[in-house]
Amino acid sequence: MVKGPRISYVFILAPKARSLTVEIHHHSAYQIVLSNDTPFNSTISGQLYEHINGFLIKPHVPHFCVAEKETLNVLNIEPYSNIGLELASRFKEIQNYIVFESPSETNLFFQTPKDSLDVTKVVDALLSKLPAIEYDER
Questions:
Q1: 83 and 12 in contact (C-beta within 8 Å)?
Q2: pLDDT at 59
Q3: Which of 8, 25, 72, 85 is the most exposed place for a label (fewest CB within 10 A)?
Q4: Residue 27 and residue 63 in contact, taking contact as beta carbons nearer than 8 Å
């Protein structure tokens, strides 16, 4: 049996935001927000979190961020994509979000190199957990 290339169907929108304050909103995607430099404040489902390094939220969870001097990486991930399904498996049954208080918590959760919040490493770590899928040429 000949195996084809490892193909993963990935739907990720990944903007970088600098000096922002956003009003309460929600997305129809999983969202990962990580600080590039210094901790920021966010309110998620009505709960204020101060001086955090990031968070992961399920689709439709209301939230807003205040990052007036920070640079944030924002990853929006389609819920039914392979990575979205992988992220879904990491939540406890009644859990809607996960807050990362420190870079080490983030690294542990995503299994990335120590003290690295590089988004490409987070995406690579997520992709490494996906099963190989044969390419369908149709």
A1: yes
A2: 96
A3: 25
A4: no
Provide DSSP, 9-26. Answer: ---EE--EEEEEE--SB-
Residue 40 CA neighbour count, 13 Å, CB half: 27
CA of 61: how far to CAs of 7, 26, 121, 127, in Å?
30, 6, 25, 24
pTM of the complete model: 0.81
Burial class (CB in 10 A: 0-12, 13-18, 19+), 122: buried
Query: Rounded to an integer, what distance in angstroms lies between the CA atom of residue 61 and that of residue 47?
Result: 12
C-beta of residue 35 within 8 angstroms of C-beta of residue 117:
yes
64 membership: H or E segment, kind and range = strand 63-77
